[in-house]
Design goal:
There is one protein chain. The chain folds into 4 domains: about 5-130, 2-Layer Sandwich (N Utilization Substance Protein A, Chain:P, domain 4); about 130-200, Nucleic acid-binding proteins (OB fold (Dihydrolipoamide Acetyltransferase, E2P)); about 275-360, K homology (KH) domain (GMP Synthetase, Chain A, domain 3, 2-Layer Sandwich); about 365-449, DNA polymerase, domain 1 (Orthogonal Bundle). Helices cover about 40% and strands about 25% of the residues. It has helices at about 5-15, 20-40, 80-85, 105-130, 200-210, 215, 245-250, 255-265, 280-285, 320-325, 330-340, 350-360, 365-390, 405-415, 425-430, 440-449, and strands spanning about 45-50, 55-65, 75, 95, 135-145, 150-155, 160, 180-190, 190-200, 220-230, 235-240, 270-275, 295-300, 310-315, 340-345. A hairpin with a 6-residue loop joins strand 1 and strand 2. Helix 2 crosses helix 4, helix 5 packs antiparallel against helix 8 (about 255-265) and helix 9 runs antiparallel to helix 11 (about 330-340). The protein starts with a helix and ends with a helix. Mean pLDDT is about 85; it is low at about 365-370 and about 385-400.
Amino acid sequence: MKEQFIAAVNQICAEKNISYESVMEAVKAALATAYRKDFGNKEEEVEIILNEGGNFATVLLIKEVVEEIDNPNIEISLAEAQKMKKNVKIGDEIKIDVTPLEYGRIAAQAAKQVILQRIQEAERESLYEMFKNRENELLSAQVMRVEGDNVYINIENHTVPLSARDQISGEKYYNGKRIKVYLDKVVHTSRGPELSISRTHPNLVVRLLEMEIPEIIEGDVEIKSIARDAGVRSKVAVWSDDEKIDPIGACIGQKGVRIQSVMEELNGERVDIIEWSKDPREFIATALQPAKIAEVIIVNAGEDPRVRKRAAVFVEEEERPMAIGKKGQNVRLASDLTGYELDLYNLEQLPAFKEKLKELSKTNRRMEDKELEEVAEAEKEIEEAEKSIEKEEGGEPGHWGKLGKAIVNKLEKAGYQTIEDLKGMDLKALEGIEGIGKASAAKILKEIE
């Protein structure tokens, strides 16, 4: 076999991380296909022998020795077979050398595309075998090229696309940059297996913390939950049942060196480490830091799986903006971290709220009464909002859009000056603004969009 061919095969195996045997099988299959196409037919059974020297390949046609021929493409008579091999008998197979004189050049041209296709198939199979048991792992990668929003990275000699939705917003990618990615899963597609990788998945933060903090890997510190706004901020709840271990201190490290290493890998994303608590009220209050929480009341602890857990959070007026956070980020992350839907109230509303709960507790239909109350409140808000819109003839376009005066007054009282100040806030964050209920929040969100 020609030395340059062997060298080419070895290079393919090294670059694509596939076995030498699988490439050689692909070559033989391609040469057999080329022979059937130009010299034989698709019914013939062909064996390819790759030669160490001389001709590139030998083509052997395999036929079964039979007494009476039904299909001459795969059968040969005993008399004809004995001319080639004396001791042959019925039922034996005989191999006939049918290598064409011009086969070398023709075969190479005809088989080129088939060989490439088979190598791609072998590469995809190698990809699946290599990563099928490595889902939920942290992988090291290097950026190979950037084409617009598409980034292609190299993971263990495999080129994998990193989609725009899985890229950290604002992060710069350039050729040669080394990054860590989270392998979510290996996905089967019509084009073969593909790696679903991400820089935005919350578990990327978890895996980075495990890599930097020995106490987590050893089980001394446990990550209870995580909430992430990729590229901006993450909140991680940690806990340890060993009183001698400070879970927050272990994660932050001396002079913050451990957590700083994680944040640098995340393109400067802020990572807040919060101590988890068995008491949901204490956990919620901690999750809303840096805001100081006056009181937390659990409205629904999740006894009914059909109803999401809910809590009322009471803060001083000056702490409210901090509790909500920029564009509602702080309360949203705290809600995701704790698993509770959080409703923010001013501290002055606490006595009335407690009185309302006390009244509801006197009946066995607590949730039904509360739902009816919310519906009535929403209907009242809709009616008031619609009246104010009609009165103002469409509100103030360009400043507050078509929001009514009643809603505008509440927003301005809360410190917002234009509709632009509310952009980026979701329904939950809007409901957290003092005086804004569900119906008003829905109208505001529609105006923002």
